[in-house]
Amino acid sequence: MKFGHFDDVNKEYVITSPRTPLPWINYLGCEDFFSLKSNTCGGYSFYKDAKLLRLTRYRYNNVPLDSNGLYYFIKDGDTVWNPGWMPTKTELDDYKCRHGLGYSVFEGKKNGISAVLTDFVPMGTACEVNKLTLTNESDEKKDFTLFSYVEFCLWNAMDDMTNFQRNFSTGEVEIHGSTIYHKTEYRERRNHYAIFSVNTDIDGFDTDRDSFLGAYGENRAPEVVMTGKAKNSVASGWAPVGSHQINISLAPGESRDLVFVLGYVENKKDEKWEGLNKVNRKPAEAMLTKFDTTEKADQALADLKAYWNGLLSHFTVSSSEEKLDRMVNIWHQYQCMVTFNMSRSASYFESGIGRGMGFRDSCQDLLGFVHLIPDRARQRILDIASTQFEDGSAYHQYQPLTKKGNADIGSGFNDDPLWLIAGTAAYIKETGDYSILDEITPYDNDASKATDFMEHLRRSFNYTVNHLGPHGLPLIGRADWNDCLNLNCFSEEPGESFQTFGPSEGPNAESVFIAGMFVKYGKDYAAICRHRGLEEEAKEAEKQIEKMEQTVLDAGWDGEWYLRAYDHYKHKVGSKECEEGKIFIEPQGFCVIAEIGLKDGYCLKAMESVEKHLDTKYGIVLLQPCYTRYHVELGEITSYPGGYKENAGIFCHNNPWISIAETVVGRGNRAWQVYTRTCPAYIEDISEIHRTEPYVYSQMIAGKDAPNFGEAKNSWLTGTAAWTFLDVSQYILGIRPDYDGLVVDPCIPASLDGFSAKRDFRGVTYHITVKNPNGAEKGVASMTVDGTPVEGNMIPFDGSKKEVQVEVVMG
């Protein structure tokens, strides 16, 4: 069942019913100011940091669902309605929401009045712009009243929802003309404020929530709206809001545009006060001048669309597969941009309060983003590295505003250091910029402890070398990629509380997954060393890699698949010897990507085992059989019901690992099958089952052991975005940047007769045509570059060219 459709020409998803299974959201903003916007106008806004600089309130999991946002109420006689349906939920004569790239448009009609709300965050300005076009489509004059409404957050989102004894005495506002200034805590330690303004004279305002809603009132029927008369309330303490009243009169066929601006304003150091406890209005007025006419707002939207069109032009594909083209050219890359900006911090499933930016998460997000804006990727890598410790380990998360490590989460996830090598290698392959290795970069953000960035990579690599367990496999620490696989916990008796081992006792749990990572990204580390002229270091790294490969085959192979791990007591995890959890997805993916045992058939056998034991119609589950009871020695993974999250859920993040692994063994049909089973465009028709947005990936889908098999959760902010784009662009389509040039190595379904692609790479545009006359799944029979045949499938980089024509024949 569908609740809308794709519009590829306008790069939009058009939602035609407000009653989607869950709120279907969009992200507005791609620099410092962000707004999350649902298909019914719910959501919230913040500047840089969703925890510390939250502009508007949002109540997660509220009943009714998604009932706080930036709303416009239209009171037409006794009828009150919203262009986006919520929160009045008045039945509309027509409804449509169009989520585009960085903007959303809400179209509602009721009783002859049409309202079109165009919502976006412009480039270069810390605000959200709402252009509301009201049209009288009836044959009679229409007199009605418009009320805007937004509820301000008191900046620190966690404190806002917990410290009521203080916060209910701090709310402060100022009203100047049509602009409401939310200045709570401006007098204290902050030198910023929020504004909510409209480009016309107003007929009233409200800034006190209780006055606007009424005693025991609610968003669905605010007292002010129902009576049709603003109270001109001025918030003092309690909860500040922003609301404008505008009386509208339209002749038949007449339209009127209004431009509202919700903005964040920060004074310069020498511009704090305008008067005693009064905000300095000059920077706000300068901001509002940019959008004080319809023409200026329209131009800002046009500039935003041009920006996105430019970004997405760096990689495009044209094939006989419409859904493939749609995802590669639009939605894959759009989601990669959003996850780069947000990491896992702010969504409808992430509150923006706890997680911040992830060390591992942000490194992986780079893999799908680096080709879009390499300079920002470079800075992100340096920010991430600055949270690293001197021994090569790292804070698992950091806050985006302060760029300081999150001490509450701490460290001990032993895969983290290797992801820094992965992200850096992706950046260097894309750009050829080795100068990043010379950047002086601190440890734990302490400038007195700083080395060149190359040393950070060295310590990342050696952290694994120096932390090996009894079998010679990498120690897992608190966990590896699977945060819920906690193998260094134990209890003496069943049911007793568990404890962790101290340094003198271990911990000894080992990860075969990290071993696969070490081999894969260790090769990149060795290549970087060699490019730096560090030949002996490269050779020593390769010795460690070869040793690890053999260790995996000796101690990490279970006969038909790779083991997952060993716990502290050297018991196998992810083995046919186990009662439950016999086979896990992660080591099958990464050990094959690392080509461990490829020539001897191990990799193919592992892929066959995945297909036999882990496959389902909605994707590949993380493990089988699911855990049916709690295992203290395995940790949080067994706390979930079977089929959910890490306990045999379909973790979309590592499904592309299997698809990539299938390209390693040359099975294009199977790689394609794995890709399409979780790809949004290919599962749009089951939206009533899937429930989350049909245009972006979710973190997980309920597995076959769950009652709600096929239901997705945790949409938008997931490493799935980067990995699926990496999978389809670099391994299925096979257009892959490397240190010395661009590789073209497709692995496609036999039914695909070829494709063409445009790829910008280091300032050169490559026009690539791939032909597959004989239905091959993998293999390059011939390749010509500008009409000249070349050996192999690498296009050597030549920066003197601006355009390059490439033709590849598979076979």
From TrEMBL:
<dbReference type="InterPro" id="IPR012341">
    <property type="entry name" value="6hp_glycosidase-like_sf"/>
</dbReference>
<dbReference type="InterPro" id="IPR037018">
    <property type="entry name" value="GH65_N"/>
</dbReference>
<dbReference type="InterPro" id="IPR052047">
    <property type="entry name" value="GH94_Enzymes"/>
</dbReference>
<keyword id="KW-0808">Transferase</keyword>
<dbReference type="Pfam" id="PF06165">
    <property type="entry name" value="GH94_b-supersand"/>
</dbReference>
<dbReference type="InterPro" id="IPR010383">
    <property type="entry name" value="Glyco_hydrolase_94_b-supersand"/>
</dbReference>
<dbReference type="InterPro" id="IPR037825">
    <property type="entry name" value="GH94N_CBP"/>
</dbReference>
<dbReference type="InterPro" id="IPR008928">
    <property type="entry name" value="6-hairpin_glycosidase_sf"/>
</dbReference>
<dbReference type="InterPro" id="IPR033432">
    <property type="entry name" value="GH94_catalytic"/>
</dbReference>
<feature type="domain" description="Glycosyl hydrolase 94 catalytic">
    <location>
        <begin position="307"/>
        <end position="734"/>
    </location>
</feature>
<dbReference type="InterPro" id="IPR011013">
    <property type="entry name" value="Gal_mutarotase_sf_dom"/>
</dbReference>
<protein>
    <submittedName>
        <fullName>Glycosyl transferase</fullName>
    </submittedName>
</protein>
<dbReference type="GO" id="GO:0016740">
    <property type="term" value="F:transferase activity"/>
</dbReference>
<keyword id="KW-0328">Glycosyltransferase</keyword>
<feature type="domain" description="Glycosyl hydrolase 94 supersandwich">
    <location>
        <begin position="11"/>
        <end position="270"/>
    </location>
</feature>
<dbReference type="Pfam" id="PF17167">
    <property type="entry name" value="Glyco_hydro_94"/>
</dbReference>
